Amino acid sequence: MIGLIFFLMKQKMVPYVKIPFSTKGLQIGSATVLASAILDQEQTEFPPNTLYAEGWTLVLFNLLYVGPVIYACVQPSYMAKSLFRNVLDTCSMVVIHSGLYNVVHRIMHRVRAFRPIHNIHHQFKDVVVSSSANAVSVQEFLWAYMMPFVVGVHLIHPTESALFASTSIVSAFNLLVHSPHLSTQKWISWFVSPSEHLTHHKTRTPSYSAPTFHWGRIWSKVTHAK
Ligand SMILES: [Zn+2]
Ligand SMILES: [Zn+2]
Q1: Which ligand is nearest to the CA of 177?
Q2: Per-residue pLDDT tens for 1-35?
């Protein structure tokens, strides 16, 4: 069958579609895979073998294929920007990602039709490992993880460096909030801590913020300050 498709493509009888692929996206994906494997070494408890293996298959596919393809589809700005502007754009991208992730995560819990795409991630319930961060269905990876960056790029027009920095920050915090050995660590007060996200895995609690800003806490601090 595959031979027939290649034959037809050679004869130009079926269109040949070149899928874009970004080496920058692959660098972030590979670094995240490596960091996941190193952080998993810190674990004392592991999920059942079949779930752990399925999780790693998704981790590798999402980070080494889906991520680099989407990264190649977004167009960063090639305009020179000051260091201050680059830092501001990086922070804005992280804020936009966090806000949109919260909305999509809420939808995946509250709207019945979207629940199945979030199920595999919540199979890591009592035992969560760092690599579980990207052990999500491809649909979840696209909607909850990638879509916020695509929207951010359209709104902010970050440079390539600001896009690289913001995706690296989000990816790093995503691994950290899924790391049980960090659950007793003090955390940045406006950010979701590992213990809070691990509680979400156990109880599916109504806190849908991750992996950076904790919007519920920020909201209550702002309203109490008034
Ligand atoms: Zn999670
Ligand atoms: Zn959830």
Answers
A1: 1
A2: 566 666 766 666 666 678 999 999 999 999 999 99
Other C-beta atoms within 10 Å of 84: how many?
8
Ligand approaching nearest to the C-alpha of 132: 1
DSSP 25-69: HHHHHHHHHHHHHHHHTT-S----HHHHHHHHHHHHHIIIIIHHH
Q: What's the 199 CA to ligand 2 centre distance in angstroms? A: 10
Ligand 2 centre distance from Cα of residue 117 (Å)? 10
Q: Please say if the pLDDT value at position 194 is more than 90.
A: yes
Say if CB 195 and CB 55 are below 8 A apart: no
Ligand 2 mean position to 206 CA, how many Å? 9
The Cα-based distances of 120 to 5, 13, 47, 170, 200 in angstroms read: 33, 39, 13, 21, 14
Separation of CA 219 and ligand 2 centre (Å): 20
Q: Model-level pTM?
A: 0.91
